[in-house]
Amino acid sequence: MSMTDSTHEVNTVDVVVEENPQEFLAWYRHSGENEIPELSPFQTMCNSSSNMKPVKDYRVILQDIGSNYITHMYVGVTGIAPNLGVICPRVTHLRICMFTGSDNKIDFIEHCKEVCKLEIHNTDLSANGFPDVFSKLTSVKELYLDWCILPQLPEKLQSLASLKHLQVLSLPGGRRSIGYPEVVSSLTNLTHLYLPMLNITELPWSFSSLKNLRELSLSRNKFANHQLPVVVCELTELVHLDLTSCDLIDLPQSFCRLTKLEHLILTFNNLKILPPPIYSLTNLICLSVPGNFKLRTFDKAILNLEKLEELHFGDCYALKEPPWKLCFEGIAGVRRYFMEREASRLVD
Length: 348
Prior knowledge:
- Helix content is 12%, strand content 16%.
- By secondary structure, it is α/β, with parallel strands linked by helices.
- It has a 13-stranded mixed beta sheet.
- β3 (70-77), α3 and β4 (93-98) form a beta-alpha-beta unit.
């Protein structure tokens, strides 16, 4: 008996098959199809939604895949959730969207023990307490809880602590702002972390335990005293940092420790000058500061950023040095401005 045949036999014994299956929406790929390129972090299966089709009886899916097994699946729940323990027990990429009329309970995913990329979309995760099912899915490496209603208290997310292999976590506030969930600090294998719109005003020192982080988004959080928490400067492996709309007026001096940064986004803050620590980040490739309406000056030290390829500063109308109109020329125009200015001073 093949491994696939054995799996089907176990499923029919261990999982109850409903007599009256519920209709749902689905898109899927199975092991008999050509492999598709692995999705990069934060690249979701959402584009598959346009290919979802109504399924009135999941047994039609089982007939379609034959002796194969489902590897990727996008499920749209419109009522009672389908029995994924029968349909896709070996799925590795799973996206769940709870539509109007669904009961918002996601315990039905507990039989998907091999899932490594899990996306939960448009779901109320607070109605019955934050689901304990996450503690049973210990193989998950990427978790996206997008446009979900989170519990009011961040400590209610404690079941995430069991995801010791988690590398990517997307936990946007959006529909509810809860502050910083302390459980995140225990997920020390994280490399990509997205915490926008959570109403985070400060970060505990335990945040520094996330030493493997390469990409971090704290956008749309208003920090206390308009200052970035200094603990962020302990994350010296960061390559990409998004601080959009954080109401910042400056950056801490220790920000210069983030020497591996290649992409820094400071769009829509309240900077008056480009913070001096930025000029020490010699690996920067892209710097974005549009929408800093009070920004007045860059320093000539920006010439030190020799790897900088993209400099975005549109809508910085108060900028005098260099003139804001140079925004259309980007970093090339800024370099030319400072080099010509220095040359003229030498002549004088």
